[in-house]
Amino acid sequence: MKIFLFSVIIIAFVVLLLSVKVIFSKNGRFPNFHIDGSKAMKDRNIHCVIKEDRLLRQKKKKNTRIINN
Q1: Number of C-beta neighbours around residue 40 at 10 A
Q2: Deepest in the core among 22, 35, 54, 69, taking most CB within 10 A?
Q3: Mind listing the pLDDT tens digit for each residue in 13-49?
Q4: CA-CA distance, 42 to 34, in Å (whole number)?
């Protein structure tokens, strides 16, 4: 029982330390570590896989409409 209580206290302390920035910051959000959140990647026109896939699907759909007409 002592080990369980000690583990819960340690986990609660770690969660509190990890959330300090989110709780006390003005914005109250976690930092964006996604590729689209990086200015350097935007400048190089590099996107995440999901956005690249969406853009390619839109391009493909647009090309098939041109061919079918």
Answers
A1: 8
A2: 35
A3: 999 988 887 777 767 676 777 787 788 888 888 888 8
A4: 11
Which pLDDT score is estimated for 3? 94
Number of helices and strands in the chain (H, E):
3, 0
pLDDT at residue number 65: 64
- Nearest-10 Cα torsion for 21, 22, 28, 30: 100
Structure tokens at 2: 């002592």
pLDDT reported for residue 66: 61
How many Å separate Cα 17 from the centre of its chain?
A: 21
Are 35 and 46 in contact, with CB atoms under 8 Å apart? yes
Integer angstrom CA distances of residue 61 from 11, 58, 67, 68: 49, 5, 10, 11
